[in-house]
């Protein structure tokens, strides 16, 4: 099966308006003509290329022996080989035989924060431990070659990328830690059929497997965010904002004319200094900015990440945090709100507090060209 002319024009139009620049990466197998992502060896090669480099860099940076790692968590939604991705990492680097290893799949773009949640719970039980979290999505085996428009969207948005994070509950690591996890709130709308099917992998009418993004996706994401915020708000907002929000809800119940006005949206800028919105696409970032009343600068890390790296799925939040660090904007005491969305449908929030004086010159994914950003991303990109 191959694309018809209408599908080619549709994908071209979406790419031009996606907000993704020309430097965002695709795996080697998809640079071939015609692209071929059918080989499992190519998918493994992409995992090795991405995660092995990340782990090597992290171990060198922190002067760690792989045997010092007590907990290993890897997440990759659409590629779940046997042995698992976490087993690939253990085999490559020679982790201990009693390392606690976990491999999360099928959890979508929110899996990065789900991995952090799992690490947090494990570190509560296992004292004096180090947890390594690896987040990525494979592009190689997941291209769609049919002509269903809802499945073609994934071809245009996703790009290569990954992140490696080290978490610790060791007393001696307090002095070198960059952030402390303050809160992690998870929301799951899997009980609702419309939400459950809003991001759905299935075969099309010709038997070609793809991931369909429904027209209800933004509405579902907005609902999930609202529920998530309802739980997160009392944990982080000052009492004045909580009172205004609660009064807005009560007023709508006791005075019918109040229903004609929108519910009061709390000012989360009074709780957070920085915002990292999942770079799932231009429309996703626009919707979250609008719902939370954020300004252009507050959405900048997400827009620049989308432009430079594309939708890297579960790792996009860490590219955004790296952007803020490279810009020198994160100061000791600042609180950062990470917002992730994923299939299921899920919305997850993580709140981090900076507990260190960060060096903006420290090497990260943005170091070589941070001086070029931010840039004005045109509505329609040249290609």
TrEMBL record:
GO terms for molecular function: fatty acid elongase activity. GO terms for cellular component: membrane. Residues 273-353 form the Beta-ketoacyl-[acyl-carrier-protein] synthase III C-terminal domain. The keyword Transferase applies. Keywords: Acyltransferase, Transferase. Residues 3-253 form the FAE domain. It comes from the Eukaryota. SUPFAM superfamilies: Thiolase-like. Its EC number is 2.3.1.199. One of its GO terms (biological process) is fatty acid biosynthetic process. InterPro entries: 3-ktacl-CoA_syn, ACP_syn_III_C, FAE1_typ3_polyketide_synth, Thiolase-like. Gene3D superfamilies: 3.40.47.10. Belongs to the thiolase-like superfamily. Chalcone/stilbene synthases family. This is very-long-chain 3-oxoacyl-CoA synthase. The lineage of its organism: Eukaryota, Viridiplantae, Streptophyta, Embryophyta, Tracheophyta.
């Amino acid at each position: 099966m191959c694309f018809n002319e209408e599908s080619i024009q549709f994908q071209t139009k979406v790419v031009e308006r996606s907000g993704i620049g020309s430097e965002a990466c695709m795996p080697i197998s998809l640079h071939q003509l015609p692209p071929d992502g059918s080989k499992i060896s190519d998918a493994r090669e992409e995992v090795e290329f991405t995660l092995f480099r990340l782990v090597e860099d992290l171990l060198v940076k922190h002067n760690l022996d792989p045997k010092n790692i007590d907990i290993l968590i890897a997440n990759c939604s659409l590629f779940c080989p046997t042995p698992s991705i976490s087993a690939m990492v253990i085999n490559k680097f020679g982790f201990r035989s009693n390392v606690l290893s976990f491999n999360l799949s099928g959890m979508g773009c929110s899996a990065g924060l789900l991995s952090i949640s799992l690490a947090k719970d494990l570190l509560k039980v296992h004292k004096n431990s180090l947890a390594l979290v690896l987040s990525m999505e494979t592009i190689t085996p997941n291209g769609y070659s049919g002509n269903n428009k809802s499945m073609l969207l994934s071809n245009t948005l996703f790009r290569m990328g990954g992140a490696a994070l080290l978490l610790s509950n060791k007393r001696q690591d307090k002095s070198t830690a960059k952030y402390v996890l303050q809160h992690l709130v998870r929301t799951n709308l899997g009980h609702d059929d419309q939400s459950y099917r809003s991001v759905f992998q299935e075969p099309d009418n010709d038997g070609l497997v793809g991931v369909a993004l429904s027209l209800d996706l933004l509405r579902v994401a907005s609902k999930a965010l609202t529920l998530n915020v309802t739980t997160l708000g009392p944990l982080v907002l000052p009492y004045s904002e909580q009172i205004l929000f609660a009064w807005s809800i009560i007023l709508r119940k006791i005075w019918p004319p109040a229903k004609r006005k929108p519910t009061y949206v709390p000012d989360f800028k009074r709780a957070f200094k920085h915002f990292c919105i999942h770079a799932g696409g231009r429309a996703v970032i626009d919707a979250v900015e609008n719902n939370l009343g954020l300004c252009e600068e507050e959405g900048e890390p997400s827009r620049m990440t989308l432009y430079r790296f594309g939708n890297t799925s579960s790792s996009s939040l860490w590219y955004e945090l790296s952007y803020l660090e490279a810009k020198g904007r994160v100061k000791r005491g600042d609180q950062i709100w990470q917002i992730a969305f994923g299939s299921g449908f899920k919305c997850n929030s993580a709140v981090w507090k900076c507990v260190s004086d960060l060096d903006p010159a420290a090497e990260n994914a943005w170091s070589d060209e941070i001086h070029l950003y931010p840039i004005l991303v045109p509505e329609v990109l040249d290609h």
